[in-house]
Fold this sequence. Notes:
This protein has 3 helices and no strands. The protein is mainly alpha-helical. It is elongated, with a radius of gyration of 53 Å.
Amino acid sequence: MDQELIAYLDQRFRETAQQIASLRDEMNGRFEQVDGRFEQVDGRFEQSDGRFDKLERAIRETQITVEGLRSDVQQVAEGVIGVSERLESTRVEMAKGFDGIEERIAPFYTDLNRRVTFLEGWAERKDQDAIEVIRKKFGRPQAT
Length: 144
C-alpha cells in the first residue's frame, strides 16, 4: 500500500476516534445530568411520601363511598320497580272499577237521553197552539 494512503487513513481513524471520544464525553455528561434529575425526583418523592399516603387514603375512602352508593342506587332501583308494579296494579283495578260503574249507570244514560229529548220537545211546543203542533208533526198544511 502507498504510504500516503496509509497516512491518510491513519489521520481519518484518529479524527474518527477523537469524534467518538468527544461523543462519549458528551453522552457521559448527559447521563450525569439525567442521574442528577432522577436523584432530585427521588428526593422529592421521599419528602412528599406523607402526601402520597394521604392521597392513597383518600382514594380508598372514595372507593368505599362509591361501593356504598352502588348499593344505595340498587335499593332505589328496586323501590322504583316495586312502586311501578303497585301503580300498574292500582291502575288496572281502577279501570275495572270504572268499567263496572259505567255498566251500572249506562241504562240511566239511555233513559236520560230519551227524557231530555222529550223535555226539549216539550219546551219548544209549550207556547205553541196544540192544533198547529199536530199539523207540523203530521205534515198537514194550515187551512186559510
